[in-house]
Specification:
By secondary structure, this protein is of the alpha+beta class. It has helices at residues 23-28, 63-70, 72-75, 102-108, 139-147, 151-154, 212-218, 318-325, and strands spanning 5-8, 10-13, 37-43, 45-46, 49-50, 52-53, 83-90, 96-98, 117-124, 129-134, 155-159, 165-168, 174-175, 180-187, 193-196, 231-235, 238-245, 250-261, 268-272, 276-280, 283-287, 292-295, 303-314. The strands form five sheets. Strands 1, 6, 16, 17, 18, 19, 20, 21, 22 and 23 form a ten-stranded antiparallel sheet that branches. Strands 2-3-7-14-9-12 form a six-stranded antiparallel sheet, with no helix packed on it. The chain has a three-stranded antiparallel sheet with strand order 11-10-13.
């Protein structure tokens, strides 16, 4: 029997994330393995990097094993697990990166998915900046900047603060700045092309590998994106602010003010930004700030209770969201037009 699953994350740390820090432990009390912990994979079915159920009869099971056993009853969609939920701590600047779309990744990365993602800034130093696109408008000009060794001159920097939401579709050049902690929802993929790494060297004294040609192949320099304000609708037990609904995922903030019922039929990934309780007829558990759970598609009569913000990510239902939002649908990235 499937039920709401509280998840224990997989941590990427040490030499894998030399840019990481200790903020995930300090902010959320996570049992990070060291002070170079860059990623907490909250809900992950990536082979070798899987999150694990921590509650109920399925405690100790990996997410991947449950997907294999229960399939669409868990995910609501055919095929393998479609999403990956992370928290990231960037103590230092990350490399300049870009991700491919599905078609390019399938052709060049052994059938893997591409990667579209989104960030919510959870914490940052005052004046913290990140790279969000480039200032040149054509592929030819971007190639010229790269070939002349002047990619840094073409990077578009923005200042961020807690609460900012950014949509990063495939082809968007980006880099998370130092001193920033983010929530990230993305397609379940590990395909990343490193454009530039600030002339840094690894523990072996050698520069980390770059993927310049592939990065140029998939970059979309004409993208012009802004922070998202979203569209808010009232619902039982509070309100819901919707930010993104493309072909890959739907991202909303549940503004819980009491007892909010959750729809069934779609898998839902929840991450609490304050203390909340997940209840269903057979049980309940508390989600503290920074903790995540997975509500299976087949689960019914599940509610989130309390007075807190909870991030919700799911597979998309674009028609239903358009109907709910009406003219405000244009405020949701990817809903009324492709990006």
């Amino acid at each position: 029997m499937l039920y709401p699953l509280k998840m224990t994350p997989y941590f990427r740390h040490g030499a894998d994330t030399p840019w990481g820090g200790s903020a995930l432990g300090e902010l959320f009390g996570k049992a990070i393995p060291d002070a170079l912990t860059g990623e907490s994979l909250e809900v992950s079915a990536l082979p070798g990097r899987e999150s694990v159920v921590s509650n109920g009869p399925l405690a100790g099971r990996t997410l991947g094993s449950l997907v294999n056993e229960h399939g669409e009853r868990l995910t609501g969609v055919p095929g393998d697990f479609p999403l990956l939920l992370k928290l990231l701590d960037a103590r230092d600047m990350l490399s300049v990166q870009v991700h491919p779309g599905d078609a390019y990744a399938a052709l060049h990365e052994n059938g893997k998915r591409g990667k579209t993602e989104a960030w919510l800034v959870l914490s940052c130093e005052r004046g913290a900046k990140l790279v969000y696109g480039v200032n040149v408008k054509s592929e030819e000009k971007l190639r010229a900047q790269v070939q002349s060794g002047r990619l840094e001159d073409a990077l578009h920097w923005i200042t961020v603060q807690p609460g900012d939401v950014l949509y990063i579709p495939h082809g968007c050049v980006h880099a998370l700045g130092g001193g920033i902690v983010v929530y990230e929802i993305q397609q379940s993929s590990d395909v990343t092309y490193r454009f530039w790494d600030w002339n840094r060297v690894g523990a072996d004294g050698q520069p980390r590998a770059l993927h310049t040609e592939k990065a140029l192949d998939v970059s979309r320099p004409a993208l012009r994106l802004d922070k998202l304000s979203g569209a808010t609708v009232l619902c039982e037990g509070g309100s819901r602010t919707c930010y993104i609904c493309d072909d890959n995922f739907e991202l909303c903030r549940l503004n819980v003010a009491g007892d909010m019922p959750l729809e069934s039929g779609r898998m839902l990934l929840l991450t609490a930004l304050g203390e909340a309780e997940i209840r269903w007829p057979e049980g309940a558990f508390t989600l503290n700030a920074g903790e995540s759970c997975l509500i299976p598609a087949c689960a019914e009569n599940v509610r989130v209770c309390g007075h807190a913000a909870v991030m919700g990510a799911s597979t998309p239902d674009r028609d239903a969201l358009k109907a709910a939002l009406g003219y405000r649908a244009e405020l949701v990235a990817g809903l009324t037009k492709e990006i």
